[in-house]
Amino acid sequence: MPEYKITINDRTYTVDLGRILDDTVDVTLDGKTYRIKVEAPMRKSSKTPVINRHRQVHNPAEVPDRTFPPGTAAGPGDVIAPLPGLILKILVKEGDDVKKGQPVAIMEAMKMENEIESPLSGKVGEILASEGESILENAVIMKVGG
Length: 146
Description:
The chain is mainly β.
C-alpha cells in the first residue's frame, strides 16, 4: 500500500491507501482502517465533439446533376457506375434486348455487390467496361439504345 504523510490541524499522520474499488478506498490511519467514499471531480467529456452540418437546398433545381462526369454529357441510355468499384460480371452482350430496370452488370463497391440496372428499354449497344476492370464513379459501363 502507498504510504502518505498528511497534516490536519497542524498534526501530522501517516496514511496508507488500500484498494480503490469504484468510489471507495480503504485508508489506514494510525493503525485503524476506514472505508472512505470518494467523489471524483466532474471531468470534461473526452469524446470528440460531433458537428452536424445539414445541407439545405432551397430550390431542388439548383442541385448540380452528378449522374455523369463533369465536362461530358451522358446520354439517356448510358449505364453509369454509381460508385468506384470493380466490375464482377457483365450480364448482357452487345445486341441483347433489355428492359428498363433489368440488371445488366454486377459490380463490387465498398465490399458490397451491387446490381447495375438499365436506365431504359432497348438494345445493348457498346459495352465499355469489362469483367475484372476497376472503374471510377460516374464511368459509363455500357450504352443502351432506345
